[in-house]
Design a protein that fits this description.
single chain, mainly alpha, Rhopdopsin 7-helix transmembrane proteins, about 70% helix
Amino acid sequence: MKPHNYSGISEFLLLRLSNAPELQPLAFRLFLSMYLITVLGNLLIILAVSSDSHLHTPMYFFLCNLSLVDTCSTSTTVPKMLLNMQTQSRVIAYEGCITQMYFFIFFTVLDDFILTVMTYDRFVAICHLLHYIVIMSPRLCGLLVLISCIICILNSLKQSLMLLQLSFCPDLEIPHFFCELNQMIQLPACSDSFLNNMVIYVAVFLLAGGPYTYSKIVSSICRIPSCQGKHKAFYSCVSHLSVVSLFYGTSLGVYLSSAATHSSHSSATASVMYTVVTPMLNPFIYSLRNKDIKRAP
């Protein structure tokens, strides 16, 4: 079987989350509702932070960026999935697939960086409270976000260019509901994707610094002498930690198991958790339990 060069490929076929026709309308309404909640909730957080001068602090600066990234990340995958459900089509153009993959990698990895930066912000607030204002200066906050964006742009570009070097076989069905990188790499059996997998594993290893930072926060809280201080610190972080655990657990699981044998349905389900569910939960976590956000005009 001769490999096909990427220039001869015009489209891919995406797998549906469910092949049962009677479940398609229900799935469409469910994901449309989740998408609208995600977009509306995150935009309300951005509006609240921008309009209230009392929220112009490092924590809410990073939260505002996280809301923007979550909105963009969800918008790279869910609208196309909803369109395919509505039109009963599974087709996505080759150029559209590569574009979707590029922006999905960019926003997902940037989400990871923003969460890690927010972790560092909470670490400084808990362990170095007296020096918090000096350490988390506006200059440093802006620099952290800028560096994160630059790294994510370079990473997305590198992953996309490496994928373009692969040759695809005639079977162009992607066992997923969007063009996810690890599924794309498994698709081209006509060329060697060993280097692509190694680059993914290296990137995942480097991005695993977020969970390590959270472990430092937990250990620091455990060293607080008073029980009241421990309770207050854990109460302020428990919701954030739960959502972050869901994000890292599902995303790292999907990519670390990319070379292993696993069902496409389980991979798609895990991807739904960190691409759709987590961005939807963030507005609830950071608004319903946050007195400052509630007081914002």
